Amino acid sequence: MGVLGVRERLRAPIRARLDDAASAFLEGEGGRRVDFTRPAGEAALADPDSISWRIFKNPVALFVGGVTAVLLELAEPRIRTGVWEHTTFRTDPVGRLRRTGLAAMVTVYGARSVSEKMIAGVTRMHARVSGVTPAGVPYRASDPELMNWVQATAAFGFLEAYHAYVAPLSEAERDRYFIEGQPAARLYGATGAPRSHAEWRVLYERMKPQFERSDIVFDFLSIMHAAPALPGPVRLTQGSLIRAAVDLVPADAREVLGLGASFGLRPFEKVFVRRMGKRADRWPLPSSPAAQASVRMGRPADYLYRR
């Protein structure tokens, strides 16, 4: 057996365990399983040949980008207060991440009828969330300004994670990705979400004066380092992936938040994270939403991994 054959045999058990994790991930609240293969032939909000379908199939980009997005959300005091007071990040971080990740998968890969129903439920929940920051500023989770920023941070995090650690994307591809997210953004109430990378920069500059340092950011990172957020075979990489996420936060935001060089990647880790990202981009997992959605649209389960 050649070297490549030996390597594949060594990797097979890891891939099997990761596929088991992908299968468990699809279990919704109360044990209800999300089936991305149904209804057969029904389109998603984004096309199978979209940049979005390419990015969201990669678990490294999703984990890293998700942490980056939360850090940028927590920089804004109204969103930070809402997240910390009205979610289970402190008491059940893994469950919260799982629910958020599943919602993202349904938004991108789910049949349109399924994703629209799920998003409607999320917006109804947001409509009930309101409060006052420690500084006395009132907020509502359904505030269009806040919804635009949440949508923008998620788009930025996933895009930059894929671009930095998986495969470089051209400026045209980056702009196309923002356009692809518009139908979902409107359903979530983010009617002013960026439609291009340039528009993201404009929104970032507009939001930046509101950023402030908070101990909650450091609490979040501590929780993420301690929580068993990744399946067993790759859990030892969790710290590196979290530091990779910090590295993607724009430098001026990191300075405001107090995230110095020690919170980012060590020199040797960047190569390691990139290798992980590239490898994950070529490992089809039959139970993943990406594979199931491809089957729903009449394509092979490994369709996204051949490109």
The low-confidence parts are 1-10
Helical fraction equals 55-70%
Kindly state the number of beta strands.
Answer: 2
Give the integer mean of the pLDDT values. 90
Query: Approximately what portion of the residues adopt beta-strand conformation?
Result: under 5%
What number of domains? 1
Shape: globular
Largest sheet: 2 strands, antiparallel
Structure summary:
This protein is mostly helical.
Can you offer a commentary on this structure?
With 307 residues, the chain is mostly helical. It has one domain. It is built from 15 helices and two strands. A two-stranded antiparallel ribbon has the order 1-2. α5 (93-109) packs across α6. The longest helix has 23 residues, at 3-25. The two termini are 27 Å apart. The model is unreliable at 1-10 (pLDDT under 50).
Topology, element by element:
Elements lengths: L2 H23 L25 H6 L2 H16 L2 H10 L6 H17 L2 H16 L2 E3 L5 E3 L3 H22 L5 H10 L1 H7 L8 H11 L7 H12 L11 H11 L2 H7 L9 H14 L8 H8 L11
Antiparallel strand pairs: 1-2
Which features characterize this protein?
307 residues; mainly alpha; two-stranded antiparallel sheet; 62% helix; disordered N terminus
